[in-house]
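#structure-requests
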Amino acid sequence: MSNKLKRIISSVLTVVMLFGLVCNSAVFPAYAADACGYDPAKTMSELDLSGEEALAGKSYSISTADELCAFAKYVNAGKLTEGVTFYLTSDIKLSNVTWTPIGSKAALAFKGVFDGCGYAVLKLTIDSQENDQALFGYVSGSNAEIKNIGVEGTLNGQANAAGIVSNLNGAKIANSWNAVDVTGTYNVGGIAANVNGGTVTNCTNYAYISGTGSVGAIAGTLDGVSTVEYSYYVYYSADKGVGSQSGSSTQSVYRFSTSSTEVLAEKELTVGGKTSDNMLTLLNEWLDTQEKGHNYRSWVFDTSTNTKQRVDGNYPSLEYPDYIAPTESTYTATATMTALYEAKQNGVEGGCYSISNTDELKYFRDYVNQGFKTDGVIFFQNDDILMTNTADSWEPIGNDEKVAFQGTYDGQGYVLTGMAITGSSNGLGGHILRIVAIFNGSGA
């Protein structure tokens, strides 16, 4: 299905929900079985229920928090991981989960491939007096790799604390981002805490990293022949990119700054055949230097609400299967819906007013229901909106024939999710005299 068709479908769903043609808000995306490029032998749930060990050369899918927990249990039971690929098929939220790191001891180290496929583990929460805390505890071996993953949350630990991997022994972390705020003691890093003969490459850190010694935004300590390269951290996350290093270790780590429109490295850098200070260019140019078959995901800079929540700010993230890039608005806003509502005055005829979140959608409803002018006025949605706390208090937009909506509402291909309506209302919208140009049909 093309992105253009998906945008049109999402636009139609927005219209239907806004103006009361249906009341069912549960719209679930359907992903192709092999959207991530794998042909799984089993799901992680099936592998867990079977009690069997994974087969080398096979792949196993992880789709839920329960399956990620089952994966951690599987690894921490000492079962086979070498030569096995485990991969995510969606973002996973670990809300209210007491987390034990995957590969919690050196003897139980993860030795396979973990491919996030551009998805993220969100709401990772660890508060422990133990050492070696992270999403992964120990990852070991020259064929072991963590790639294409993002992690977001908070972590309070002791020595060897990190967002993604605590102890990286001869293994690799590639093409991944961290937004876990990490606090520890010694050897504290955003991507990895203790790197011993391992490699961290094309990774980014967006979180605060703090501790008492050997603290680095990317890695805490490098030992042996270790490498941290082509990696970047937001300037305020830590004082240094790598806390300390010894042996024959090398590093090329740089700071960056960000805004709502661009992300810039601290200076121009050369990656592959390009020289630039644009982070997105640098991150994606690295992909072109890699051998085919690694399936590294491209980077995007998407400042829509959903993406900003995933990475905890205006930062680059990874493209995942069925990712739809936001389309540039066809409107220039006269003002936001917040500004129009707070002004308590009629909109300008021909004016365009942007609606970006739940509060502004409520302002739009109240503006219409209080009888302000809508005829000849355009209201446009410029982000996906997650509806919250609407079940018991929602009044339809245009709740009386005297205040029927007469203007234009353009969803621009964005959608409303999480809508729940009870009572006698027919939906988000009530009385409408006419609807013009509800969606523009454009899509990336």
